[in-house]
Amino acid sequence: MMGFVGMVTRRILAGLAATALATAALAACGDSDSGSGSGDKAEVTLSLVAYSTPQAAYEALIKAFQKTDAGKNIKFKTSFGASGDQSRAVAAGLKADVVALSLEPDLTRLVTAGLVAEDWNSGPTKGFITDSVVVIATRKGNPKGLKTWDDLIKPGVEVITPNPFTSGGARWNILAAYGAKADVGKDKAAGLAYIDSLIGNVPVQDASARASLQTFTGGKGDAILSYENEAIFAQQHNQELDYTVPDSTILIENPIAVTKNSEHPAEAKAFLDFLYSEAGQKIFAQNGYRPTVSGVNTGVTFPTPSGLFTIKDLGGWSAVNKEFFDAKTGSIALIEAKHGVATVAASPSASPSK
Predict the structure, then answer these.
(1) Is 346 helix (H, G, I), strand (E, B) or coil?
(2) Are 109 and 244 in a shared domain?
(3) Which of these, 181, 217, 226, 207, lies nearest to 343 by C-alpha position?
(4) How far apart are CA 66 and CA 89, in angstroms?
């Protein structure tokens, strides 16, 4: 009899132990999903779709973000490519929680498609995560002394810049030169005459800014028009070049946004918050980008051109694309055709590749 009771007792105790283990397991699952108990949150994956140039910066930013409390359970799936191509891919269905692009029109395409909120640019930085400027880069030591816009149109000087009908970077370059010589649009004839002379000194127009940099570092040309961050990138990777920030040049503004159909909007917003934080802006600065958040201490100093202007000073992207880059009637298209350079038919709102 006592043996029977002991056996029953052991079975009851074993059952209670199993129940306790099962309860603990369920509680652990609850902690993983809700973040209660141990404080751990469920792991999520964010999709970052971005233009190609800041890839190294974003790789560093993601690692730094994942070391924070907000980012420790977040993984990333990234896609880097030409800004216009990336924008069109997202519009066509490519999954994205965060989009970081080169040109504002590439972002507004996604607003039109209903994928980004209309108020994406309502914050203090107007939706721009990084800034840069167009610079004049030369061979190490600047053997021909090329420092000004006027220097680039001297006889015998070869200037490298991509085709503005395939490259967003080239559009920034052309607009920087035009704005500088047109007194920010006040003397259009002078600006266009300068562009005509400049294009006459361009021996080859590659499809992208990165391809033009490769052409230049490969030995062709005396100078190259480039983003400041691209020139810094080249120097950081032991490319033999120097660069000058002209007194008059254009401010390059790069937009970013969380998509409306993000499956993890809170986590995506946390990532954006980190990018705008002092730590995030410092990493951008270390990669050659100017901070968009005022007052942050990045530890990096950038020169301030006395004649810095913006795309808004030239009328904004819609007006600029129509006036200058319409493939049939745009003033830049006509100059390119005069010099035998092909233009790509595109609507004024369409954006070229980075």
Answers:
(1) coil
(2) no
(3) 207
(4) 27
Residue 330 in any domain: the answer is yes
Say if residue 124 is exposed, middle or buried (CB neighbours under 10 Å; 0-12, 13-18, 19+): exposed
Q: 224 with 243, same domain?
A: yes
Question: Residue 62's domain is classified under what CATH number?
Answer: 3.40.190.10
State residue 347's pLDDT score.
38
**CA 13, 14, 16, 20 torsion-angle sign:** positive
- Listed in sequence order, the residues at least 6 apart from 338 whose beta carbon sits closer than 8 Å to its beta carbon are 196
Do β-strands 74-81 and 44-51 pair in parallel, antiparallel, or remain unpaired?
parallel
Residues 152 and 280 in one domain: no
State the DSSP code for 107.
H
Whether residue 170 is found in the same domain as residue 206: yes
Give the ranges where 46-92 is alpha helix by DSSP (H): 55-66, 83-91
What is the distance between the alpha carbons of residues 91 and 111, in angstroms, rounded to a whole number?
Answer: 9
For residues 110 and 137, membership in a common domain is answered with no
Q: Classify residue 95 by its DSSP letter.
A: -
Model confidence over 222-239: pLDDT tens digits? 999 999 998 998 899 888
H helices present in the chain, as ranges: 2-34, 55-66, 83-91, 104-112, 168-181, 188-200, 209-217, 228-236, 265-276, 278-286, 317-325, 331-338
φ, ψ at 297 (rounded to 5°): -100, 100
Please tell me the total count of domains within the chain.
2
Over residues 4-21, the mean pLDDT reads 40
3-class state of residue 80 by DSSP: strand
Three-class SS state of 313: helix
| Residue-range definition of the domain harbouring residue 242 | 132-251+304-338
Clarify whether residues 70 and 148 are in a common domain.
no
Mean pLDDT of the chain: 87
241 & 285 share domain = no
Rounded distance between C-alpha atoms, residue 250 and residue 312, angstroms: 10
Same domain? 61 vs 119: yes
